[in-house]
Specification:
Distance between the termini: 21 Å
Number of helices: 5
Number of domains: 1
Shape: elongated
């Protein structure tokens, strides 16, 4: 059973690669007047994905980095932000390792 859990956790860590989409906000920043700044700040939680190097499955939390594109003025970048919520999958792995 542990082998199966390890394999699943490894694949879940790949979800964190979605968070790299949040780096597009560096080249095309979101206008400061647009709503959703609080959710865009949640994009910083994408750094939790770094824990995936030590905690299997925690890399999925890196997808939260895509939330930095929330309510972006470019529709193509805005769509990537919805995938950022997939990062919540990695949070239980982080909490489980802390307990």
């Amino acid at each position: 059973m542990e082998i199966l859990e390890g394999a699943i956790a490894g694949w879940l860590g790949l979800i964190g690669l979605i968070g790299l989409a949040g780096l597009a906000g560096l080249k095309y920043p979101v206008d400061r007047e647009r709503e959703g700044a609080g959710i865009r700040l949640l994009g910083l939680l994408g750094l939790l994905g770094i824990a995936g190097f030590w905690i299997p499955g925690a890399g999925a939390a890196g997808a939260l980095g895509a939330l930095g594109l929330w309510n972006h003025q470019k529709i193509t970048l805005r769509r990537w932000a919805y995938f950022g919520w997939a990062g919540l999958v990695g949070i239980p792995f982080i909490i489980g390792s802390l307990l």
